[in-house]
Amino acid sequence: MISKSSPIGVFDSGVGGISVLRVLKHDMPNENYIFFGDSINAPYGEKSETRIKEMCDNNIKFLFEHGAKAIVIACNTATSAAATYLREKYPDTIIVAMEPAVKPAVDKSETAHPHVLVLATSATIHGERLHHLIGRFSDDADINAVAAPGIVPLVEAGKEDSEEMLNYLKELLKPFRSAQDGGEGKIVDSVVLGCTHFPFAMKKIREALGYDVTFYDGAYGTSRETKRRLTEAGLLNDSSADGSIQLFSTSKETSPTALAERLLNLPFDYSPEK
Ligand code: DGL
Question: What are the tens digits of pLDDT across the range 158-188?
């Protein structure tokens, strides 16, 4: 039986979901969390939709076995490929998913017709969901969507702040770097982090672009929606004590959750726009 004190189950293809978990923890510190990172199968972004659905189903079953009262799909790729399928399969469960923060990037911009760069995995970029989302705002902004498949393996390898990351991003983002900097000069106002691994590479994305931009992260909307759904269902934890966090991973490493723990403890600037 689930109750108010049951944990919120959070899953991702790997450690990216930690960027969502830290926002959830900040917004609802008294909740208990159980995090499952399927690192052994990362990246999901390069896999078929059928395979992603299968892996997500396994992740949810694991979280149910550990008594989860609600599920947060802390993965844009899994949301794009499997959220509808999972909600149909588990209609009685609260399942909250991700949405790339395109709306806030357009609505909150001070520029009349902002230039927005959406970065995500290949699966998200080519998925119907993002296509529709961008279509809703295409009259109000110039939106470029770019697949950045190289970020996830580097974050999974603990290299989120490395020269390797910077070199990869400089090449990928060449069209958006200034002409003086060897780029093609398509300067953007903001970057939407459309994959939950990407907030960990934010510093290097900014450095690779070579100028300041505002970042938008969908984790904040997901966290607000989780709180709203739990409140509505009468399942918000009313304990006044700090909740617990249990981390699980499918990684083959001897200490599979060490990376997740390190990322969770990184200094973190709580702000939907950075
Ligand atoms: N963190 C995931 C996302 O938000 C997926 C990364 C991957 O496994 O490709 O899209």
Answer: 999 999 999 999 999 999 999 999 999 999 9
